[in-house]
Amino acid sequence: MSPAPRILVIEDNADLAQGIAYNLQLEGYEVRIAPDGRSGLDAALLWAPDVVLLDLMLPGLDGFEVLRALRAKGSRIPVIILSARAEEADKVRGFRLDADQYVTKPFGVMELLERVAAMLRRTGRDARPREETLTFGDVHIDLARHTVAKSGKEVVLPPKAYELLLALLRRQGAVMSRHELLREVWGYGSSVVSRTVDTHVAELRRKLEDDPAAPRHILTVWKIGYRLTA
Amino acid sequence: MSPAPRILVIEDNADLAQGIAYNLQLEGYEVRIAPDGRSGLDAALLWAPDVVLLDLMLPGLDGFEVLRALRAKGSRIPVIILSARAEEADKVRGFRLDADQYVTKPFGVMELLERVAAMLRRTGRDARPREETLTFGDVHIDLARHTVAKSGKEVVLPPKAYELLLALLRRQGAVMSRHELLREVWGYGSSVVSRTVDTHVAELRRKLEDDPAAPRHILTVWKIGYRLTA
DNA sequence: GCAGTTTCGACACAACTCCGTCACTGCGCC
DNA sequence: GGCGCAGTGACGGAGTTGTGTCGAAACTGC
Q1: Got the DSSP string for B20-53?
Q2: CA(B91)–C1'(D28) in Å?
């Protein structure tokens, strides 16, 4: 097995960084955290990560400066910018400095993982003997092609439903509360409270269960949330 | 073994806080109590707990303000709100401020412990070599999946029965009075007096004992309460 | 502007909780 | 050892709570 892809997270908010790192590690990546621009830049140059997640608002050297310095040194490491500001100006500025992705906070973990995976696929660094396809029951999910098939027949899932499915699948077997799912898929700080999750779960059941009324894989756990089992 | 997860309890009711702290310590957590909003906020920022339990009605700085201040400082520590008010408005307000859980009083200790454990599991801070599965006889309980299985076959337990089972299991071997069980599972101040506990015990026996009429694990201790043995 | 998607409230329904009643069992007292 | 008393087990129905479903409104990307 070749070495795990390395992800550098440059983010000053320790809790957020930990959360991201944890989820990346779950995926089998090697993760390092840099709490400020200076150490982030050093790590990016010395540790040779395969992807950099870069917060824009950093103490000292800010994200833009880190990115500029990085490119000035000739590094072409793929950079995914994490930003609280959704402003167009920032986005343009980011891409001009050759950022590869731009994710605005709050973002869902699933979205981030998807982008990282896509990035690694693109650069060919994802050498892990990684299953590109997940399975439960007679449902197959092709991560690279972003498609879902039930007993060989392709099923079209809209973005939210797809991410919800991945979130449930990632914790295969474990219960996840509605709120937890909201955080993973919809992003932290999401204030959605109502039947939203249920609606999407219903959609998944409708499209993926043999008998949506008596689900065998996507199960509800009373007072707790949902659970997916193979 | 890595350091125990740290739990900060911000709660002005000393008895309640002590009770919660005691039970959390039993689980192996390091616990600190803050009796008001100001000291709670300080502790949350300086002591760096892994989870914060936050009462809403506090002297001085109230719970909402603490949470807001905490988030404003960029902290993303998971917060579980403890509230006497069950009103929807509060709940929405709490989630909007990015609370992670919302538990309304009166709550059972088991429920709280479950939520804390789930929270730590999610953030990956729970590095203790923690059993994810409990066993007695041919019954297995998977905490992460929130499922119970008897000789391999899954048994569906409603929330209260599940919590009751956990409560009994936690004190494996020791007798627990009905009153004690009420406090643990149903919450302090619970004034339930009648056959409630018995009913749920009966349900557990019905679903988990080979011969519910001659229980071998969930035993009655006359005039005292119940006891669970392996 | 349109088609597909997402959100969200309303309502019906299902699951669960609780508690009273009654029968029964274990225990002590005579 | 029988008798009465308290405590427990079993049962079922009323009430509560949480979930599934549906449809309309808001939104998004093209």
Answers
A1: HHHHHHHTT-EEEEESSHHHHHHHHHHT--SEEE
A2: 29
pTM across the whole model: 0.88
Helices (H), B63-136: 63-72, 88-96, 109-123
d(CA A187, CA A107): 4
A125-139, B142-156, B179-193: range with lowest mean pLDDT: A125-139
Asked if the model's pLDDT at residue A3 lies above 90, the reply is no
**Closest by Cα among A169, A164, A230 to A202:** A164
A82 near A53, Cβ under 8 Å?
A: yes
pLDDT at A190: 62
- CB atoms closer than 10 angstroms to residue A74: 7
- Residue B146 and residue A191: Cβ atoms within 8 Å? no
Percent helix, percent strand, percent coil in chain A, to nearest 5:
40, 20, 40
Q: State how far the Cα of B230 lies from the Cα of B225, in Å rounded to an integer.
A: 17
Q: Residue at minimal CA–C1' distance from C7? A: A196
Count of CA atoms in the C-beta half-sphere (13 A) of A97:
23
- Please check whether strand D approaches the CB of B220 to within 7 Å: yes
Q: What is the pLDDT of residues B41-62, one digit of tens each?
A: 999 999 999 999 999 989 989 9
- Other Cβ atoms less than 10 A from the Cβ of B214: the count is 8
Question: Maximum distance among all alpha carbons in chain A?
Answer: 59
Size of interface A-B (CB pairs under 8 A): 52
The protein footprint on chain D, as nucleotides within 7 A of a CB, is 7-12, 18-23
* Pairing verdict, β A51-55 and A79-83: parallel
Residue B229: predicted pLDDT: 93
Tell me which amino acid residue A229 is.
T
pLDDT beyond 80 at A58: yes
E strand or H helix at A19: helix A14-26
The 10s digit of each residue's pLDDT in A106-162 is 788 888 998 898 888 888 766 555 567 899 999 999 988 899 999 999 999 999 999
Nearest to A85 by CA among A94, A76, A77: A94
Distance CA B97 to C1' C3 in A: 35
pLDDT in the model for residue B71 = 84
Q: What is the pLDDT of residues A26-35, one digit of tens each?
A: 888 999 999 9
Q: Is the peptide bond before B106 cis (omega within 30 degrees of 0)?
A: yes
**B66 residue type, one letter:** V
Instruction: Look up tokens 């999610």; give the residue.
Output: B122
- A189 has a chain B CB within 8 A of its CB: yes
